[in-house]
Design the sequence.
């Protein structure tokens, strides 16, 4: 893995994410879409839930969660992107890794949003704990899991391992 | 003894213990709640270095505005030299509080991953020390930029005017944008990314072995 590429991509994408036009054209619509999907999922089994913009609200007790920047999983997706781009592989493999990884991160994020919505209704202290600390850590652990699974899957890596076994060398990884 | 046998023995001695990806993740998930509870119980202790650093740096960056930073458990009180008028007309010193832990939750994650790695006690201690250093730096960044953004962007014109009277350079657009970006970086990005980036960069070899198992 190329550490320089990892850090450079990380910095470049985070800077990009914070720019006004990127916020207006990508981050905010994406966050709103996430809120809509979360609300739709909740409404499948809970008719007392409703959504408005980035807010999911319970009609039963008025409890509401707003999906703010930082709750949308974009930072985790950026971290995964940097790791995948910094790892020696083909562009096809990187594409597969990123698509599958983004889906895994957002599935986890939807579970996070829905669980927080119900945690808030149950106990505010636990909600704060999970919101501020636990779920943040778990989402990024998810990034690490996805990354390890992707490396395990890499066809070019397996090919590289086979080649290296045959050559009796220890290069390990095939480079793109 | 043959040279090949000796080499093999040497390699076996030097070989790092292996762990499968499944074992590593399972161990990390098992250690995570333990580390979170330990971290929360010792929150005041773990927050101390970052709060102390902020106490040293903030008055240096904003002399005449920032008086200091005080620790109340894991909560932080930012004490300024500015005045604020209460609704009953009384004038007092402006101070505000924040939660330092929301910038430091990367440490239990680093700790859990470190405890799950199949390394010696000394290597783990090494990891823990460097991990603590990077988390403290990220936490200091978070505390400082929350303090600056509260002062410059959230508290209203009365406070901001006092700051710009003392330090005229703080009214520049460049500084205000820098504070806004620094706050977003410190709140959204650093606390979560630092532990994973730290672990990935420090354990490149283990990452390869996890993938191979």
Sequence:
């Amino acid at each position: 893995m190329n550490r320089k590429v990892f850090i450079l991509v990380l910095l470049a994408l985070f800077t990009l994410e914070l720019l006004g036009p990127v916020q207006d054209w990508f981050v905010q619509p994406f966050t709103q879409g996430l809120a809509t999907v979360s609300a739709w999922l909740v409404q499948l089994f809970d008719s007392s839930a409703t959504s408005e913009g980035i807010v999911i609200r319970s009609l039963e007790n008025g409890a509401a969660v707003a999906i703010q920047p930082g709750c949308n999983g974009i930072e985790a997706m950026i971290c995964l992107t940097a790791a995948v781009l910094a790892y020696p592989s083909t562009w096809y493999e990187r594409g597969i890794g990123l698509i599958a990884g983004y889906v895994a991160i957002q599935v986890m994020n939807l579970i996070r949003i829905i669980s927080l919505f119900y945690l808030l209704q149950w106990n505010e202290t636990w909600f704060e704990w999970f919101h501020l600390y636990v779920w943040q850590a778990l989402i990024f652990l998810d990034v690490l899991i996805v990354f390890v699974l992707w490396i395990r899957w890499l066809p070019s890596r397996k090919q590289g391992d086979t080649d290296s076994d045959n050559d009796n060398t220890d290069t390990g990884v095939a480079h793109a | 003894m043959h040279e090949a046998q000796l080499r093999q023995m040497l390699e076996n001695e030097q070989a790092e213990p292996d762990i499968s990806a499944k074992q590593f993740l399972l161990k990390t998930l098992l250690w995570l709640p333990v580390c979170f509870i330990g971290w929360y119980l010792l929150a005041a202790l773990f927050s101390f270095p970052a709060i102390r650093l902020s106490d040293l740096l903030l008055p240096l960056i904003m002399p005449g505005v920032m008086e200091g930073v005080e620790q109340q458990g894991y909560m932080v009180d930012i004490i300024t030299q500015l005045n604020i008028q209460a609704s009953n007309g009384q004038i007092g010193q402006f101070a505000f509080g924040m939660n330092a832990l929301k910038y430091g939750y990367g440490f239990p994650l680093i700790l859990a991953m470190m405890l799950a790695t199949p390394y010696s006690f000394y290597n783990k201690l090494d990891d823990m020390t460097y991990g603590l250093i990077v988390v403290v730096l990220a936490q200091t960044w978070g505390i400082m930029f929350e303090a600056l953004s509260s002062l410059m962007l959230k508290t209203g014109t009365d406070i901001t005017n006092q700051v710009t009277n003392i330090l005229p350079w703080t009214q520049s657009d460049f500084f205000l944008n820098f504070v806004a970006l620094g706050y977003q970086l410190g709140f959204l990005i650093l606390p979560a990314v630092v532990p994973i980036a730290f672990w990935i960069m420090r354990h490149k070899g283990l990452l390869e072995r996890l993938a191979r198992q």
User: Anything to note?
Assistant: Chain A has six helices and three strands. The mean pLDDT of chain A is 83.
